[in-house]
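Task: encode each sequence below as structure tokens.

Item 1
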Amino acid sequence: MEIHVNRFFSEPKGWDTARTFIIGTAAFFALYLYFELVYGTGSYDIVILGASSGTAAIAELLPKNQRKLAVGLRVAAIAMPAIMILNALWILLS
């Protein structure tokens, strides 16, 4: 698996890429609502994943000249689940 740093710092790609993130966001929030309404056990981790996916979608929907803001939103979209995983590891190891 290769990491393409130049894609991370590229300009926003538009609707074609954002569509996947929007569908993912809707799926995560639908899962949360289902488990919260049916079982009363909705997990905030699913909300964090949905927010992360939504942030990535916003980054891709920005105008082409908003490259720096798109990079910032991409970093935030990666940081949200990373912090969630680090928090889970901290709880596990404590």
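Item 2
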Amino acid sequence: MPAEGTGSDPRRKTTPARWRVLGHPDGMLIYQVQCIVEHHGWTEPAAEDRHKIILGRSGAYQRRLNGRTGVSDATSVLITRPGDEVAVAHPYGCGDSYTCLEIDQAVLTDRPDAARWLGRAGWAGTSDAPLDLAHRLLVAECRRGLDRFEMAERLHRFLGRLLQHSPLAGEDAGGDIERAVRRRPATLAAHRRLADRAREVLATSDFTLGLEEVAREVGTSPHHLSRVFQRMTGSSLTAYRNRLRVRAVLDSLAEPDGRPLGALASEYGFADQAHLTRVVRNQVGHPPARLRRLLAD
């Protein structure tokens, strides 16, 4: 398989995309994809034929996993297994980029945590800042060049790290509200739609919208939106917005042009360079200058 190319999105065979294979060690395949949006409607549902982990990097789209529709963006993690049915759509006019790890079932069968992988149905959730940084550092190391032995070991370590991520470990961020409104399914559905709509607005904006403007976009009050979003996602709107902004900054830091941090602060809606540095350090534990060295090719 060539290292780079333009053709069908490996996630959905009918979606045009640019892709780059990072490695193919020992029954595993890791690659990056940048979707090219030509049609905004849904792809035909297709059954997965391998175990896959899809880690969002930028942009936003809609996905339908085993009949359940949701929003995927730079914070998203999607885990599928053979037989899961997936379709995607790009109604927002923007593309998305992501990293995909495909794994042979035999590889998972040999792991001590095999039951947790093989017994899992398709799962869609989000990554926290440490998991996202681990994902990006893994990609950076693969892009710099690893031998098959080291790449396989790093991928296995990442799989273990992924299972330690709290929602995958059994916590359900939306469980409290689902239990609270279990007798009112219409309320639960409305709250899900409201939270998803807020995610759409935040993920496709240029980070200049205020809270009142976001609430106006989704047709509710700031207080109601903040309360429902927190209960449905386990995250405040501010924390979620910062996660999106930090991921956008990390993408920019990995680029070779080396834009000044002040310019990045202005582009992504931070008060100034010091604010950007503080938010990035609080989320991922490193200042932007060090992250630029770690993430660059």
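Check on item 2: The chain has three domains: 4-164, 175-234, 239-295. The radius of gyration is 19 Å.
End of task.
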